[in-house]
Write a structure and sequence with these properties.
- There is one protein chain.
- The protein is of the alpha/beta class and 409 residues long.
- Helix content is 41%, strand content 15%.
- It has helices at residues 14-22, 28-50, 56-60, 75-94, 114-117, 164-170, 185-191, 214-221, 230-245, 259-274, 294-303, 328-331, 336-345, 371-375, 377-386, 395-408, and strands at residues 125-134, 152-161, 173-179, 196-198, 211-213, 250-257, 280-286, 306-311, 323-324, 348-349, 354-357.
- Strands 1-2-3-6-7-8-11 form a 7-stranded mixed sheet, with helices on both faces. It has a two-stranded antiparallel ribbon with strand order 4-5. Strands 9-10 form a two-stranded parallel sheet.
- α8 packs across α10.
- It is globular, with a radius of gyration of 26 Å.
Length: 409
Amino acid sequence: MEVTTSKLVRPCTPIDRACITTATPKSISDQTLAVKTRRKLERLFLETSNQPEQPKWMEYQGIRNWEGLLDPLDGNLRQEIIRYGHFVEAAYQSCDFDPSSITYGMSKYPKKRLLEDSGFSGTGYKVTKNLTATSGIKLPNWITEKARPMRSSWIGYITVCQDRRKIAGIGRRDVVIALRGTATIFEWLENLRANLTPVTGEVTGKEPASMVESGFLSLYTSGVGNVPSLQTLVREEIGRILETYGDEPLSFTFTGHSLGAALATLAAYDIKKTFKNSPLVTVVSFAGPRVGDCRFRRQLEQQGTKILRIVNPNDMITKVPGFVVENNDAAVNFGGWVNKLIEDTQWVYADVGCELRLRNEDTTYRNGFDIATCHDLKTYLQLVNGFVGSRCPLRATARRMMKMEKKIC
């Protein structure tokens, strides 16, 4: 027999249930209390319901700092991390690493087919800008002119989602800035310039300027001859994209591995500072080294730049450069000579953003782990793919354990 509900009977709402549990009337005074309680709850409910709900994609881009999504790792976020990792893989695949080649340090593939030729077809994205980084190291006079062009090298690209179905699926037009890790001798030399230096052009008033690693800042801001700096290239293309698609839901995702992760953090900071009305800016950092001090971290937090650092605990690169003082924000506020001593070292860094700390106990590389393997992007993507949580085994191991338990039962 089918039971129907009369249209005159209002279904029980969350407010009704709250009222029932908080005030079940036993007398007239109790009834008055129940009415007052209900009215308060109704006002609270209306205030909450009137607030616009954030689209789901914004959670995966870090609008709430990935709260509740990292441990255990949310399945959709896992897919997003791996997807952005593939854009970085495409940057590695596209770069010519052969020193004997005439295109050494440049992209092997034309811009129009970069993703397809590097093995990542069907993404729905179109590469709109090639990116070049230039070392600011001054060369001695005896270096020949033939060697000087090697100061600049292709380091990545900017790509924009153009497929309408993809845009509808992910909820916005996504712009990805993908940057590879260290490749050329000049990039290695810049990595060694690990002392902190003030961020150029930062207006701070009485507050000391934010400090970042000298080599990373040099690679981001230096240009030579008719080769513009990486900073100029990124600013120009982001400005053009904002003009073209500014009336659409947009997201800027900076992603990189190793040196590329550090430059991605600097570029994201710069874009939020340059374009005050920019949309959500997110950094997905793979095996990234430290970039700046605690003031730099505070600037990132204040401007709303969201950073997700994917870290392999056995990867030494994520533990350099410099050192981190516990409660770094308090450390720089020490008085007198202690404060000055800490600042004068120019080696006190701060970790930024949110950390996804992986575990590699059950990886397929377990019996052959070395420093290079721990740092390799492919290792990171494999670990992300298998990661469940800090207290859980990898997904493949968990499945085997469940099968064994079923057999025993």
